[in-house]
Amino acid sequence: MAQVPQTFFDALAVRTWCGHALRALGQAREEIDAINVYPVADGDTGTNLYLTLESAVGAVEAVFSGYEVGAAQGAGPSLAEAVRAMAHGALIGARGNSGTILAQLLRGMAQVFAADGETTHTDGQGLRLALRHAADAARLAVAHPVEGTVLTVASAAADAADGAEGDCGTVARAAYEGARAALAVTPGQLAVLERAGVVDAGGRGLVAVLAALVETFTGEAPGAPVPVRGVHTHAAALAEAHARGVAAAAGGGCDDGAEPGGPAFEVIYLLEAGDSAVDRLRTRLDALGDSLVVVGGDGLWNVHVHVDDAGAAVEAGVEAGRPYRIRITHFGLGDVHTRGGALPPRERVQRAVVAVVPGEGLAGLYTEAGATTVLARPGEPPASGELVDAVRRAHAREVVLLPNDAELRHTAAAAAEQARTEGIRVALIPTRSAVQGIAALAVHEPERRFDEDVVSMTSAAGATRHAEVVVAERQSWTMAGICQAGDVLGLIDGDVAVIGTDVTATAESVLDRMLQAGGELVTLVLGDEAPTTIADRLEARVRESYLAVDTVVYRGGRQGALLLIGVE
C-alpha cells in the first residue's frame, strides 16, 4: 500500500483511500457501534460499515494483483477499473442499512470517475462532481429519507466540496469539514439522537471515511476530534432508548423513518434483475415493510428491507429476477420491536460450527445440520470480516470453522485469530471442499470434549477425497495436458486429472479414478447447470461396479462447479 500523498485521484489513490478508510473504520468501529441508537440500538453500525468496506478493499486488491506482472513494467489498473472494483466489492459485501448506503455512495463516485474509461486520473473538479453524485445517488436509493442521518452528512460534504476551489486535497478537506459540521448537529434533527445524547452512527462512519480521503491526498489525517456528543456505552444508550420507548427498524445508521412496533424480520439479498423489474420491486417492498434501501445497477442490486412477512419479501425478489445470498434475521422476542423493556442477554451455546458454502442448496443442508453458514458466490470469496461476523452470530463459546476452500485458508485463519481476541475458542479445520465439510459435520458431536470433537471432524474431512467437474473458461496448461475453452475438466484434490468434452463421461472417469483406491460412501453435489440425468448415471455406475459403496446426492444450487464429488 503506497503511503505517499496522492496529487490526483487515480487508481493508486483509490487503493490508498480504501486502505486508510478500512483502518479508520477498524479503529472507530466500537465507538460507532456504541452510539448506534437510531433506528434501533443494536450496536452494529460500525461493524456493518467495516465489513462493507473490507469487501471493497478485497475487490480493489484483486484488481491490482492481476497486474502484478505488468506492474514491474510500469503497467497497472486504470482509474475506471479500480473504482468499478471498489463499487462492486462494496455492493456485494454491503451489510445492514449503513453498509448498503455506503455502497451506494461509493458507486455514485465510481460512476463519475469511470465515465471516461480512458482517463488515467481526475482532479479537484472531478472529485467535487463525484461527491455530489454520490450524495444524490444515495438519497435516491432510500425509500423514505430522513434528515439527521448519514444522508444529511453526505449532502453536507458535497455542498462544502462544491464551494472549494483547488486540488483534490483541498476538496477532500472541505468535504470532511462540511460532513463533520453536519454530524455535530444531527441530534437537533432527530429526537432519538437528542435524547440519547449522541450523533448519528452512520454519519460518524462516513466522516471517518472522508478523513481517510484527506489523508490520501495530504499524507496526514485531520487532527480535529470528531464529535460524538455525550457518548454513552452501548448498554447505557440501549437502556435509555428503551426507557423512552424508542423502537424502529434495525440496521444501524439507517436513514428511513421507523415506528414503534416495527417489522420482525430484516431481509437482505443480492438480486440479478433489470431496471424496470427493480422499480416494481421497490413499490412492492415499500408496501410490505420499511427501512427499504435498494442500491446497485447494471443488472446487480443489493436489497435491504424490514418486514413481518420475510417469505413475501423473498418471493418479490424471485418475481423481479434471481435473488441469492439471502439473509433473514429475526429481531427476536424481547427485541425493541416487540417490547419496551431492556433486552435480556442471550445465553451463549457451548459449541457451534461455522461453514463457508458455495451454493444455496448446500447452505440449506448445512443449516439443517445446525451450522451457521456463509454463502460464497462463485468468484467472490468472503472476506475475513464476514467470517468473523458469522462466528459472532453463532453466539457460542467454542466454534469449529470450516472454510471448505483451499484458497480461503489464510482468510479463515485471520478470522479465527480475530475471534480468539474476543474470547471465543476457535478451531480451524482446513477443509478444501464442501464435501469434506459435509463429512466433518456428519461426525460432529457437541456433547464431546472440544478437542476430541475437532480431532474426529478433522479425521473425517481428511479421509474424504474431493473432486469437481467444471467447464474451462480459457486455454491453459494443466496436469492432464492442454485444455481449450469449453472443455470439461475433472479436478481431483485440486489438480486437473481428466479433460473431456462430455460432462457425464468426464464425471464417470473422475469417479472411477477416485474409487480405484477404495471407498465406502460417494457424495454427489449437483450444480444448477449439471445435466439432469447425471446423478442417475453415476449412481448406477457405483451400484454396478463397486460393491458395498453407498451414494448420496444433494442439490447445491448455483455453486460454480457443475458437480462436486466426495469419496469417503
TrEMBL record:
Pfam families: Dak2 (PF02734), FakA-like_C (PF13684), FakA-like_M (PF21645). NCBIfam families: YloV. It comes from Streptomyces brasiliensis. PANTHER family: DEGV DOMAIN-CONTAINING PROTEIN DR_1986-RELATED, PHOSPHATASE PROTEIN. This is Dihydroxyacetone kinase. SMART domains: Dak1_2, Dak2. Keywords: Kinase, Transferase. GO terms for biological process: glycerol metabolic process. It comes from the Bacteria.
